[in-house]
Design a protein that fits this description.
The chain has about 230 residues and is α/β, with parallel strands linked by helices. The chain has nine helices and ten strands.
């Protein structure tokens, strides 16, 4: 009987963190939590209420509104995927748009937003047997996680992946627009004052620029098995 562990996956945008985390959770029968979806949902809330725009951010009003923001994941019985709900409304599709992507890093910079979501994430992981991906899982949310993975890939590779994903959903975007978004998010994520994206000292870095999903999964699964002993 393998012991249950906590698996923390951090890394840059569009490195396939969520794909890997879902694969692991499904294989191990663990709980999967997409923390990026939580930040995206708060960003959608801010956009819907006019708290943020291209040259405007009313952080104080958003902070005051946080108690009215209810986030939860609900399993879609047809797809088997846990989908994001914002105040009891399924927003899984809305939070994946380029418009939300353009603002999510600015919302994630707000300390009060991070504090609210980190508290929820830590509660989700109290019983272990969880795979969580994001930007600060191994450094802030679960600093004692048994396995920490830090994922990276070249900006060009990540932009192409994101572009392919969006166009497959019939979203009207250009590669240059997506590449610009990837670079801007990298800068904001790594330079924010509160919980910047950094590789934890004990995290294992995986550059998947030239790895298939299967190669990456097999590599990480072997690490999981070592830590389950």
């Amino acid at each position: 009987m393998h012991k249950k562990i906590t698996i923390a996956i951090d890394g840059f945008s569009s490195t396939g963190k969520s794909t890997l985390a879902k694969q692991l959770a499904d294989h191990l029968h663990y709980v999967y939590v997409d923390t990026g979806a939580m930040y995206r949902a708060v960003t959608l809330f801010a956009l819907q209420n006019g708290y943020i725009a291209e040259d405007f951010l009313d952080a104080q009003t958003l902070i005051q509104s946080l108690p009215s923001v209810k986030l939860d994941f609900r399993r879609n019985n047809e797809s088997g995927i846990a989908e994001m709900y914002l105040n009891d409304e399924n927003v899984e599709q809305e939070i994946r748009t380029i418009n939300v992507s353009n603002f999510v890093s600015r919302i994630a910079e707000i300390s009060e937003v991070r504090a609210k979501l980190v508290e929820q994430q830590q509660q989700m992981g109290q019983k272990k047997g969880i795979v969580m991906d994001g930007r600060d899982i191994g450094t802030v949310v679960f600093p004692d996680a048994e396995l920490k993975i830090f994922m990276t890939a070249s900006p060009q590779t990540r932009a192409q992946r994101r572009y392919d994903e969006l166009t497959a959903k019939n979203q009207q975007v250009t590669f240059d627009e997506v590449y610009k978004n990837v670079c801007e998010r990298d800068y904001i994520d790594t330079h924010r004052a509160d919980s910047p994206l950094v590789k934890a000292d004990d995290a294992i870095e995986i550059d998947n620029s030239n790895l298939s999903r299967e190669q990456q999964f097999d590599q990480v699964l072997s690490l999981v098995m070592q830590r389950q002993q």
